[in-house]
Amino acid sequence: MKTTISQAAKHKDQEVTIGAWLTNKRSSGKIAFLQLRDGTGFIQGVVVKNDVSEETFQRAKSLTQETSMYITGKIVEDTRSSFGYELQVSDIEVIQEAVDYPITPKKHGTEFLMDHRHLWLRSKKQHAVMKIRNEIIRSTYQFFNENDFVKIDPPILTGSSAEGTTELFHTKYFDEEAYLSQSGQLYMEAAAMAFGKVFSFGPTFRAEKSKTRRHLIEFWMIEPEMAFVDHEESLVIQENYVSYIAQSVLENCKLELEVLERDTSKLENIKAPFPRITYDEAIELLKEKGFDDIKWGEDFGAPHETAIAESFDKPVFITNYPAEIKSFYMKPHPERSDVVLCADLIAPEGYGEIIGGSQRIDDLALMQERYEQHGLTGPAYEWYLELSKYGSVPHSGFGLGLERTVAWLSGVEHVRETIPFPRLLNRLYP
After folding, report:
1. 3-state SS string over the chain?
2. Boundaries of domain holding 29
């Protein structure tokens, strides 16, 4: 019977055949231990000399790292293994012998591993990170589907900037100017006016020349937009969503979290509601923590976000940032014209901002004023202005950066390990 490692528990005490690769092996005289993977998981294969043919035993001892094979044996329970099962091997059919596989069990430098990212993905820790990424994506779809959101796909090639910045990748769209999308938000606002509650999940691009452990050039965003939803209601949806994916990872990625040696007690606490502080309160908190140079009106950098997060054991919302440092589409606070109805969600343990969101402007006159202030002229922005003209309603939205969230929940230090093929400032290979 042909099966996979992930289905091993369903075939206890049965003989099965698995298509697998060898990750490592050791032998001691009359027994060989094969560390096997098949893409769904990892299992140990045990080859006992007295239980197999001499040819099979010698084949097991001569297997090289990443050799592919069909391996047959009985699935048996193994309480010593975190997986819980092992394979008592009876036969091995080599598909292709791998020679001089470059990533050996010894320690390698980061640049070497990044140059061999196409192979590094096979390693146990990288496999665990990608499985956690997959679980976050799966539970994201489940959360929004259960809450009556419609999946809408915004374009990747756009004629304008969502954030009004210059950190864009420019290209030619036949005889027009075009950019790689830095956010699908403006299009999602249009979709929300058609479907009520929507979300997108797709790649975004920032031409920001940053080398920090939190930044990628190409990354993936989950961007919900909601009609008839105000800022406070949006915050509740955000904290419920983050709680949902955190608990899904805890429930469904136990083996992966163990491989990564993640302190799961920190994740068990990620349950709504989350604490909230205003930007004003954050400034005071930073001054108490020794950031004497921080001034009202300045944006927070990584050290500031980390210091703020240290005061809480859950993600924390920082609300009501100064209007001058936020995007043109954010709705002003009804009692203070100098701040807007927005929030950044800061993850614990130094992982920084994982969500940025706000209530959007729904007043045509104010939006026209913002257009003039930010120089948003020409046909590229005309369609977005029309959203405020034809049946505008209170609406809010947010964007969650997938890679930062993966890094936080899996406990890895750098976002380059949270995406299959990272695009960094000096890396377009492989």
Report:
1. CEECHHHHHHHECCEEEEEEEEEEEEECCCEEEEEEECCCCEEEEEEEHHHCCHHHHHHHHHCCCCCEEEEEEEEEECCCCCCCEEEEEEEEEEEECCCCCCCCCCCCCHHHHHHCHHHHCCCHHHHHHHHHHHHHHHHHHHHHHHCCCEECCCCCEECCCCCCCCCCCEEEECCEEEEECCCCHHHHHHHHHHHCEEEEEEEEECCCCCCCCCCCCEEEEEEEEEECCCHHHHHHHHHHHHHHHHHHHHHHCHHHHHHCCCCHHHHHCCCCCCCEEEHHHHHHHHHHCCCCCCCCCCCCCHHHHHHHHCCCCCCEEEECCEHHHCCCCECEECCEEEEECEEEEEECCCCEEEEEEEEECCCHHHHHHHHHHHCCCCHHHHHHHHCCCCCCCCEEEEEEEHHHHHHHHHCCCCHHHCCCCCCECCECCC
2. 2-96
